[in-house]
From TrEMBL:
Residues 926-951 are annotated as: Disordered. Its EC number is 2.4.-.-. Keywords: Glycosyltransferase, Transferase. SUPFAM superfamilies: PHP domain-like, UDP-Glycosyltransferase/glycogen phosphorylase. Residues 731-880 form the Glycosyl transferase family domain. This is Glycosyltransferase. GO terms for molecular function: glycosyltransferase activity. It holds the Pfam family Glycos_transf_1.
Length: 951
């Protein structure tokens, strides 16, 4: 979505921040920190502190009782329950000289303080309507009386009238968080900010609850507003700066505030207000009067630190803890009749019911009370520690650590809470794993390793009646191996609930900050600075494992590392070590499902991956497998509001057809689940044209623009690996013995059980025909019985497999399941032709009769085996053509198109040639041409020991 609809010629500059060598070296986040730190350092030199009043210009208490967020209004939740007295106490504890409270659309707290003869700067944060954009913005407003407050509330329905009235009455205004809006709005364009530049003199560039990126963008924009630009904007939009009490010749005024709603950070961010001869003037005037004078004159310098999402996460955790204990029934009619969409109302109904049910559990309520108390610096009492279950004592330890840190510096507090949340989340997930494992062990007949797709589809059925789900129906349920789901949920309710709250607070805080990411990206281009670097995090459940997907991804990683491409991989693994461009997280839990292969299923630490994504400065996500990492990728997509992509390696519908007895209706269940998953991504990468057509047809109904065709690339031949004798592979073979090779996972869906009849028929004319099977899998023993004369060599590493390609004759690929067939490229790379069925992946790679054969059935496959081994000239030509075809699948053009389709920028000079190179002689190397002209030369595939063609 193009949020800022501006001609690029109107941009102040278009240099991407990541292209700045300094930013590339430091990283996006560090560069922002350095830039903002320099600004704060310069501000500290402006005024002597002895003549300054300290104030938090932006904070809230319980009178901010009507939230801007829709769900909060539907559920009748205030933005905070913080009492005015407690807020004032926090502000004074942090050495604020002047007190103000900026509640939404009212100054009730300020009037109440005045009635108690407490000096206060009267203020409020009014929500004003920009009619042409259908947009609400906030405006901090200072120094009005009760009659003016009434008028301001009337005028706020039109921002122009509001600001003009404030100017006429000499009421000071500040625009807080100018780049943060509570709703997405396609009507926002550059003109909004041009008008704001004409209408306002003061902008909040330091907001304690917003992120650093927004703050730096606002700062650079405001500092770049020269008198010439403001006058140009005024003329363009027919606005008179004088009507808004704005002097274009004066620099914009920068302010700071905590935007605190809970008291946790009140007074830790704010502004110093400069009043010359302050000590003398305080003898005759109130601090609030002097503060208002300094605000109007613009004698302000912000102080404090801008967090990332940590402060907001802590605030939301405290808020959620209070919601859990304080929420009241909002009423069904209120929910149904309130403004908002159907899904918003359903979500609020479910959430309110869940929370109200949860309030019946005293232990859970006590825990939430302890969370709130700990964040306020109060440790759990001894009675709670004595009563708590042994399984949950670690929770109390973390709460005590948080409470102790509250009395230390703000930095220590934020760091302690953040670390405690992360560690607590990990411990809770380990507890969940322990209880699930225990529950499964208690249920006879359920063995995780025997779980099949068929069992999942047919037997795992939770009751639709909620009471039956959670409390049972008094009958033995025929669900997944007779497990009582309600019993498991009862044991998991507390750890799942708390871990969900922790993850939810983190997700919500970051989502709030980045819900307008498109706006931030476009605004960075508009300003000409601080564009977010374009970098993708690639999640996969398998890498450095023994399977084809792992091999192909390892090839992609190698190319990323070689060319320093803007992609980093992330894998969950116990044994793999981190490398350049490779993050490794350790699993929270692991389990095996042998029927799905030898791939171990690893459950990652969700919070750890989100931290890696955030700190790494990534702005998009790609996932390669439908396992746990798919869930993580969707969580990150929602959390950071980033583009997400999926790389389809496996045809699960074909897999289910080949490995189960599910009927069409049951397979449709799986298809709809897969469709629901793929629909969540901005783009789906596929490896063959058949899958591209399938994903866009009536069965899957994906947008054709969403589906991108890609390929694996051929990895370069290692010339240190040389052929070996056939006799060292197959006992009794000679160099003239015809030998087929098949290398794959040994399982039924790979079509391997077509081989016995193919070999039996072929041996009638080629009695010496042999076959070598490389790989392991669940059908190994069964295949050995079906092919008693075959040579089984087991799993082969890269070197061993290369020796087989170089030493044997023809690769046979009977699979109709594979989406690509990476082994085809591996064969071609070593000059070995391939015989395969004419389906999906193989037919996009193999050129029939040129570098291999494409057939429709077993009889044709038998005939092509005979044709190949009885025609030496054909063998020589196909081996040459196999090398040529491999050369057309080079890494750079394939990766270039792959990155471009994800919106990433390519390194300077990186190959952007077409995906499939021309097969004419024009594009061939000299060695290849020599090979075609003279097949008996030292480069000929006939002379295997001397083969050294670079591919």
């Amino acid at each position: 979505m193009n949020v800022l609809h501006a001609d690029k010629s109107s941009y102040l500059g278009l240099t991407q921040s990541f292209s700045d060598p300094q930013m590339s070296e430091k990283g996006f986040r560090q560069s922002l920190q350095d830039e903002f730190g320099q600004f704060i350092s310069e501000q500290e030199k402006r005024f002597p502190l002895t003549d300054c009043l300290k104030i938090d210009l932006h904070c809230h208490d319980h009178n901010s009782d009507i939230p801007d967020e829709l769900w909060g209004r539907i559920l009748r939740l205030p933005e905070t329950w913080l009492k005015t007295k407690k807020l004032v106490k926090h502000l004074q504890a942090n050495d604020c000289d002047v007190i103000t409270v900026t509640n939404h659309n009212n100054a009730r707290s300020c009037w109440a303080l005045q009635e108690k003869n407490i000096d206060v700067l009267v203020a409020a944060e009014f929500t004003c309507y920009f009619p042409e954009y259908e947009l609400y913005i906030h405006i901090l407003t200072y120094g009005f009386d009760q009659e003016q407050e009434k008028v301001l509330n009337q005028k706020r329905q039109n921002v122009y009238e509001f600001v003009q009235y404030a100017a006429q009455q000499d009421i000071a205004l500040i625009v807080p968080h100018p780049l943060y809006f509570y709703t997405k709005n396609d009507k926002i364009d550059v003109s909004l900010f041009e008008k704001m530049a004409v209408m306002f003199a003061r902008f909040e560039v330091l907001n304690g609850q917003r992120d650093l990126w927004q703050s730096v963008l606002t700062l650079n924009w405001a500092q770049g507003l020269t008198p010439e630009k403001i006058n140009e904007y005024a003329k363009k939009h027919n606005l008179n700066p004088a009507d808004f009490n704005v002097d274009p010749s004066q620099q914009k005024i920068m302010t700071g505030g905590s935007d605190d709603h809970t008291g946790l950070f009140a007074g830790l961010c704010g502004s110093y207000l400069y009043i010359p001869d302050l000590e003398q003037r305080l003898k005759t005037q109130k601090p609030s009067e002097l503060a208002l004078e300094a605000i109007k004159k613009g004698n302000i310098r912000p102080f404090g630190t801008v967090g990332e999402n940590e402060k907001l996460s802590i605030t939301l955790l405290d808020y959620f803890a209070q919601v859990a204990t304080k929420i009241k029934d909002p009423g069904l009619l209120r929910i149904l009749l309130h403004r908002g969409g159907t899904w918003d109302k359903i979500g609020c109904f479910v959430l309110s019911n869940a929370l109200l049910e949860m309030q019946k559990n005293k232990k859970t309520m006590k825990f939430f009370e302890c969370v709130h108390d700990a964040l306020q610096g109060k440790k759990p009492n001894l009675l709670v520690k004595w009563k708590i279950s042994k399984d949950y004592r670690f929770c109390i330890e973390y709460l005590e650590r948080i409470a102790e840190s509250r009395n230390q510096s703000n930095e220590v507090f934020v760091e302690t809470v953040t670390e405690s949340i992360n560690e607590l989340f990990t411990f809770l997930n380990q507890l969940i794993k322990k209880r699930v494992s225990h529950a499964l062990e208690k249920n006879n007949g359920f063995i995780p390793s025997d779980l099949t797709t068929e069992e999942l589809t047919r037997k795992f059925e939770m009751p639709s009646q909620l009471t039956a789900l959670f409390f049972g129906d008094g009958k033995k349920q025929d669900n997944i191996s007779n497990i009582q789901v309600g019993q498991i949920l009862d044991n998991l309710s507390f750890p799942v609930l708390i871990s969900s709250i922790l993850a939810g607070a983190t997700l919500a805080s970051t989502r709030v900050l980045y819900q307008n990411r498109d706006l931030l990206n476009e605004f960075a281009h508009y300003v000409g600075k601080n564009a977010h670097q374009k970098r993708a995090l690639y999640l996969t459940d398998t890498l450095r494992d023994k399977n084809g997907v792992s091999n192909s991804l390892s090839g992609k990683l190698a190319e990323v590392q070689r060319s320093n491409l803007p992609v980093d991989f992330l894998i969950c693994h116990n044994d793999v070590q981190p490398e350049s461009h490779l993050h490794v997280v350790r699993p929270v839990a692991t389990f095996d499902i042998p029927k799905y292969g030898e791939q171990e299923i690893r459950i990652p630490d969700l919070m750890e991956i989100t931290r890696i994504f955030y700190k790494g400065g990534y702005d998009r996500i790609i996932c390669s497998t439908e396992g746990p990492m798919a869930v993580v990728s969707l969580f990150i997509k929602q959390m950071f509001n980033v583009p997400s992509y999926f790389f389809m390696h496996t045809d699960w519908i074909d897999f289910i057809k080949s490995t189960t007895n599910l009927n069409q209706y049951e397979r449709d269940r799986i298809r709809r689940l897969i469709r629901a998953l793929y629909e969540q991504y901005n783009g789906i990468f596929v490896l063959n044209n058949d899958h591209k057509d399938w994903l866009t047809c009536f069965e899957m109904q994906l947008n054709p623009q969403q589906v991108k065709l890609t390929a694996h690339h051929a990895q370069k031949r290692d010339h240190s690996i040389l052929p070996i004798t056939k006799s060292s592979i197959v006992k009794g073979a000679t160099e003239s013995t015809p030998i087929l090779l098949v290398a794959c996972r040994v399982s039924k869906e790979k079509g391997l059980f077509d081989l016995p009849s193919i070999l039996t028929a072929a041996k009638q004319q080629l009695p010496d025909l042999k076959i070598v099977v490389a790989g392991t899998g669940p059908a190994t023993e069964e295949l050995k019985q079906a092919l008693p004369d075959a040579t089984f060599v087991g799993w082969q590493n890269k070197t061993q497999l290369a020796q087989l390609y170089l030493s044997l004759d023809l690769f046979i690929f009977p699979s109709k399941f594979d989406t690509f067939g990476n082994v085809i490229l591996e064969s071609f790379t070593h000059g070995m032709p391939v015989l395969a069925y004419n389906c999906k992946g193989p037919k996009d790679i193999i050129e029939d009769g040129i570098n291999g054969f494409l057939v429709d059935n077993k009889e044709q496959m038998t005939n092509k085996v005979l044709e190949y081994f009885t025609n030496p000239t054909l063998q020589d030509e196909m081996k040459v053509q196999a090398l040529i075809r491999a050369k057309q699948y080079q890494a750079e053009p394939i990766m270039a198109e792959f990155l471009t389709n994800m919106g990433l920028d390519l390194p300077a000079g990186y190959n952007q040639s077409p995906l499939y190179a021309d097969t004419s002689q024009k594009g061939m190397s000299e060695s290849t041409l020599d090979l075609k002209a003279n097949p008996t030369s030292p480069l000929s595939p006939i002379n295997k020991a001397a083969t050294s063609l670079t591919v």
